[in-house]
Design a protein that fits this description.
Shape: globular
Largest sheet: 6 strands, antiparallel
Oligomer: single chain
Order of helices and strands: HEEEEEEEEEEE
Structural class: mainly beta
Radius of gyration: 21 Å
Strand content: over 45%
Number of strands: 11
Length: 139
């Protein structure tokens, strides 16, 4: 009985070894010269508003017709085929983000950039969408 009581007391003092990783917010840069583009997250990360010490911005050479952002997808349509730049914020537990980049024309491009890596969609195929894995931050 004494042995069992000692084990129970020791068991309550052990630290928890399997903790969930903490979610972090990462900033991404996006650039395209397409008349429309979309970015979709394929895993459990989400797009979020800018933290208190940062700001979201978007610039378009000839202006935008539409801009939609949801937790899983960003869609934009420009007035003409000109360069569009924007920054986005993503909240994730992982340091690799699965994305699908789409663009409106075979001859256009879409870049997505983090502090650690850069992915470019410059496919010349009919569906104009390409899957990527973007490294957000190395441990």
């Amino acid at each position: 009985m004494r042995y069992l009581l000692t084990l129970l007391l020791l068991g309550t003092g052990l630290p928890v070894l399997a903790e969930d990783p903490e979610e972090q917010i990462y900033e991404l840069e996006f650039e395209t010269d397409s008349s429309w583009a979309s970015i979709e997250i394929r895993d459990d990360a989400v797009f979020v508003n800018a933290p208190a010490d940062s700001a979201m911005s978007i610039t378009a050479k000839d202006g935008l017709r539409a801009y939609n952002i949801s937790p899983k997808k960003v869609y934009l349509r420009a007035k003409s085929r000109g360069v569009v730049n924007m920054n986005l914020f993503v909240r994730s537990k992982n340091n690799v983000l699965g994305l699908t980049l789409c663009k409106g024309s075979r001859n256009s491009y879409s870049w997505i950039i983090s502090d650690e890596s850069r992915q470019k969609n410059d496919l010349k195929e009919p569906d104009h969408c390409e899957q990527h894995a973007l490294v957000l931050n190395l441990f």
